[in-house]
Every structure is written in structure tokens, then in C-alpha cells.
Design a protein that fits this description.
Elements lengths: L2 E5 L2 E4 L4 E8 L6 E8 L6 E6 L6 E3 L7 E6 L4 E6 L8 E9 L14 E2 L3 E6 L1
Parallel strand pairs: 2-11
Antiparallel strand pairs: 1-3, 3-8, 4-5, 4-9, 5-6, 7-8, 9-10, 9-11
């Protein structure tokens, strides 16, 4: 059974940093694109960052570009999201997601991802 387990969320002051981790298990994720999405109550899940299988390509939403960095360690089946210069508007439940992508396209629609973690809460105080 495929599992994605996020960790690293918490409460931080504006301007601070957090590092999220997503540990994958249950199958090989060779060729899979991994991504981080975030969601606040009453709104749709929003793409934040994505990374191809070998980490050659990354993609970010405009709202996090320049502040967040996505990376992966395939030997550990783990994806990371380093979040710097955090703002109160970054407060959300952050989800890890995975999808097979033969063309290694970083998809931004949540409906196109097959596997999801349970989410980790990030709260940024002003």
C-alpha cells in the first residue's frame, strides 16, 4: 500500500523558516513527479512546488517562488520543501503528492495526482 507521510510543520513567526519532509513507501517512485500543495479552509488545494524524478526540473507557484525550495532524495524516497521568509499568508495545510509522469511534466492540477499524504499544518504568525 502506497503511503506518503509528511512531517515538519508547526508554528513559526513571520520571516522564519521551516523544512517539510515527505517520506514515501509502498512502491518504487521511479519516474514519478512529486509536488507540494497547500490548502486553507474553504479554498481549493493550491500547487506550491513540484520536482521531476531526477530533480533536474522544478516548478513553483508565483506566490512561493524565490522563498521555497523543493528537493528530493530518491535513495531515501523522500521529498523536502525548504520554506524561508515565511509570511502569514503561507499558513495552510501542506500536502505531499505523487503522480507518474512519463514525459516528466510537472502538473499543477491537484486532480492529476494519484497519491496524497495526510497533510502537515504550517502556521505563520505576524
Amino acid at each position: 500500500q502506497v503511503q506518503l507521510v509528511e512531517s515538519g510543520g508547526g508554528l513559526v513567526q513571520a520571516g522564519g523558516s521551516l523544512r517539510l519532509s515527505c517520506a514515501a513507501s509502498g512502491r518504487t517512485f521511479s519516474g514519478y513527479v512529486m509536488a507540494w500543495f497547500r490548502q486553507i479552509p474553504g479554498k481549493e488545494r493550491e500547487f506550491a512546488a513540484g520536482i521531476t524524478w531526477r530533480g533536474v526540473s522544478t516548478s513553483y507557484s508565483d506566490s512561493v517562488k524565490g522563498r521555497f525550495t523543493i528537493s528530493r532524495d530518491n535513495a531515501k524516497n523522500t521529498v523536502y520543501l525548504q520554506m524561508n521568509s515565511l509570511k502569514p499568508e503561507d499558513t495552510a495545510l501542506y500536502y505531499c503528492a505523487a503522480t507518474p509522469s512519463p514525459r516528466q511534466s510537472i502538473l499543477r492540477s491537484a486532480t492529476l495526482y494519484n497519491y496524497w499524504g495526510q497533510g502537515t499544518q504550517v502556521t505563520v504568525s505576524s
